[in-house]
Amino acid sequence: MIRNARTLLLSLLVAASSGIAEGQASSAQSTAPEMRFALKDNAVRWAVIGDNGTGEAPEQAVANQMQRYWTVAHFDFVTMDGDNIYGGHRPSDFHNKFEQPYKTLLDEGVKFYACLGNHDDASLEENYKPFNMGANRYYTFRKGDVQFFVLDSNYMDPPQLAWLTDKLKTSDAGWKIAYFHHPLYTAAAFHGPDVDLRNQLMPLFQQYGVNVVWSGHEHVYEHLKPQNGINFFLVGNSGELRLNNLRKPNDLDIVGFDTDRTFMLVQISGNQLDYQTISASGKIVDSGTLSRQGVAAKPASSTGTTK
Fold it and tell me: What is the number of structural domains in the chain?
């Protein structure tokens, strides 16, 4: 009788302890994501990823954080900085390296706009409908007062430069944003900046008022100091990671992060761009506000740590 009573008491204690643990885990999972900027009505809001298409657990961890933040931020689309699909490009690869990790977002109608990286298969990816490339290596699309110029930095040939010149010249968008795979500036040690590409693109960006440039290729995160008045970000660690690859110290980065994978949230409303960068573990590693160039406003701010 005493033994049975002790067994019953032990079982009750174990059950109670398990219930508390499950409740704590559930509570942690349901904690609302932290937003470092106010969500504004009628804003253009999106996420940024790059070098993501591995199909492995770290890519899924970033995708899980994106899904978590979508429940609060409800971003409409995602820009992709290249290397969208590593390795094979069979239908199963597109499923495992894109459709499955981002299934929840895709099911919610979030659109993805890809650019081509050096690991991508142009002939397949530009015709892959969920990448929204319209069967083109380079293209432009517009959301509200924001126009995006999506380039193929693998082959910056004269026809592409002529196309870019025409599109920039004729754009009446308040914000002009370019993104492509290879960085014009970076403090990462593995590849370094593409100086030839910089010499081709920077004169056009300066002449026609490009506001912000995103790239990938280096498997780190960087928020770089403005170059000739243009803001630069690098998101190349949404699947791959090159641990501790940033040169330290360096005179390029406002914030650099090379110890985990990341993605960005971005919002543009009027003359203000808000952003925050979130790691695969849910840590906010950078956040701040930029003002559109040529508009009198408070100086750009950023909070984050170089790691």
Answer: 1
Q: Is residue 2 part of a domain?
A: no
Please name which of 112, 122, 42 lies closest in space to residue 89, comparing C-alpha atoms. Answer: 122
Q: Locate all alpha helices (DSSP H) within the chain, ordered by sequence.
A: 2-30, 57-73, 91-94, 103-107, 122-125, 158-170, 195-207
Strands 175-179 and 212-215: parallel
Q: What is the CATH number of the domain that holds 264?
A: 3.60.21.10
Where is 268: in which H helix or E strand? strand 262-269
- Any long-range contacts for 119-122 (C-beta under 8 Å, 24+ apart)? 119/53, 119/82, 119/83, 119/85, 119/86, 119/87, 120/82, 120/83, 120/84, 120/85, 121/85, 121/89, 122/152, 122/154
Q: Is residue 5 part of a domain?
A: no
Is 16 part of any domain? no
* Predicted confidence (pLDDT) per residue in 226-282, tens digit: 999 999 999 999 999 999 999 999 999 999 999 999 999 999 999 999 999 999 999
- 182: containing domain: 36-304
Distance CA 165, CA 197 (A): 15
Please check whether residue 54 lies inside any domain of the structure. yes
Distances, alpha carbon 65 to alpha carbons 33, 171, 257, in Å: 9, 34, 17
